[in-house]
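Page 47, continued from p. 46.
Same chain as before, 364 aa.
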Amino acid sequence: MHGIERVVGGVRVGALAVLAACAAPMTQMGSLSKDMVAAEQEKQQEFALRSQLQQQAHLTDVAFPLLRSGVPLCGKMVARRAGLSFANAWDYKKDWQPAARRIGLGDTVSVLHVAAGSGAERAGLKAGDRILAVDDEEVVFGQGGTEAVSKRLGKLEASDAPSVRITYLRDSTKATVEVPLDSACAFDVAAETDQVLNAWADGRNVVVTSAMMRFVGSDDELATVVAHEIAHNAMGHINAKKKNALFGALLGAVADVALAGGGYNSGGAFTREGAEAGAMVFSQDFEREADYVGLYIMALGGRPITEAPKLWRRMAAELPGNIKFASSHPTTAERFVRLEQWIAEIQGKEARGEPLRPEMKPQR
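Result:
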């Protein structure tokens, strides 16, 4: 294949060669081997795993007291919780397993974290303990071990059992402890590695992104975020949104069918738009209610609430377009003012010795 050529200094060369010569770096960058890069990749994988586990541990310590304090508001969505997270090296993808082993995980199921104030902490369990048996049922080694512990512990947490017996190995010492199970809202709370400033609830889980965890200025602000999402689940907002979306989709489908009868194929556009519009119905009110109920969850858990409004001033600096203009959420200005009003409401109840319960609308 013949490329475009030109003469440079009396020598005919390809245009691509000329461009390469012109673009060549002018500095001496040295050389490195594949082994050097591979060694650094291993270190970065190890650093990333440690960072993720630390972030999850931090989130768990903030969230666990809120899940317990939210019990009066979570209705039937309550379970028993040991406050224990665990894993083994086999729970990671194949190319991440060596890094998992370098940070101390192996074939046995190891305790990753013990939530502050949990039954597991009161029983004396610590990160690094290797779980050998749950209620005298031995834990298998290798792949499937973590799943087996989760299932066994999950059955006990879903029952009325007051505690769970765990046999573990710490260094070379084997011991068995009775771990009390605390009542808590039955939601899992997870830190997700994501550069988007966000947190959300899906009815069963609460997820906070790593970007949000870096953004919050204190544990009180992080608690404000987590309690808000717990409130979404507790108040049934997710199911309500799904029902609204379904109703909107049905109305849109009627329009699509009517147009199809007239010879026009809308491609389901009205069904999609109806679902989106339906999901937005009462969206701002859901957000207001989650702010309101979330503040009560914080107060019930003994978490200071006076700093909560500041989150929305800092959020306004990050997202100035939300100061005056609302979409699915109220403006940051409105949220700040409402939180201050609700703080006064809660402080008034505390001063009068009244129960800390959100004011509910009378049922018709």
